[in-house]
Design a protein that fits this description.
Layout: H1 3-17, E1 24-29, E2 32-38, H2 41-44, H3 51-59, H4 64-67, E3 70-74, H5 80-89, E4 93-96, H6 106-111, E5 115-118, H7 122-134, H8 136-142
Parallel strand pairs: 3-4, 4-5
Antiparallel strand pairs: 1-2, 1-3
Helix pairs in contact: 1-7, 7-8
């Protein structure tokens, strides 16, 4: 497995262990992780800290030229909010752990020229399936259902 997806999975596990939703993400620039994060809506009572948003936040303010050379790794297909941030900052490539438990705004990303790779990684899938089974109410809240 790719080291960067493994780092995103570790973030997802960290989120789960701290009482949250197991979705993790890392932002990679020139083969270095510049931001990492996990869904912290529960832990911080946040309305916006999905895994991708947390990774972007933890990367700090970057010039547009940096974002345009980044790859975002995320364990789950990005929702419309996170996809909007990807488009806003011009991140050209997203590696997605899985999109079977949740299909985000992948069509929007593709239509705007973002290159997507969906791995259907078994560990990403198992994390989400177990979480959804054990905490269906929390999952529904997170996806706005």
């Amino acid at each position: 497995m790719d080291q960067f997806m493994q780092a995103a999975i570790e973030e997802a596990q960290s989120g789960l262990e701290s009482g949250g939703i197991p979705i993790g993400s890392v932002l990679v620039y020139q083969d270095n992780i510049i931001g990492r994060g996990h869904n912290q809506r529960v832990q911080k009572g946040s309305s916006v800290l999905h895994g991708e948003m947390d990774a972007l936040e933890n990367a700090g303010r970057q010039p547009a030229s940096i974002y345009r050379q980044c790859v975002l790794y995320t364990t789950l297909s990005p929702c419309p909010m996170c996809s909007g941030a990807i488009l806003l900052y011009g991140i050209p490539k997203v590696i997605i752990g899985e999109n079977l438990t949740f299909m985000g705004a992948e069509q929007l990303l593709r239509e705007n020229g973002v290159q997507l790779t969906v791995l259907q990684d078994s560990s990403c899938l198992a994390l989400m399936q177990r979480f959804i089974q054990e905490y269906p109410g929390l999952w529904q809240e997170d996806i706005g259902a």
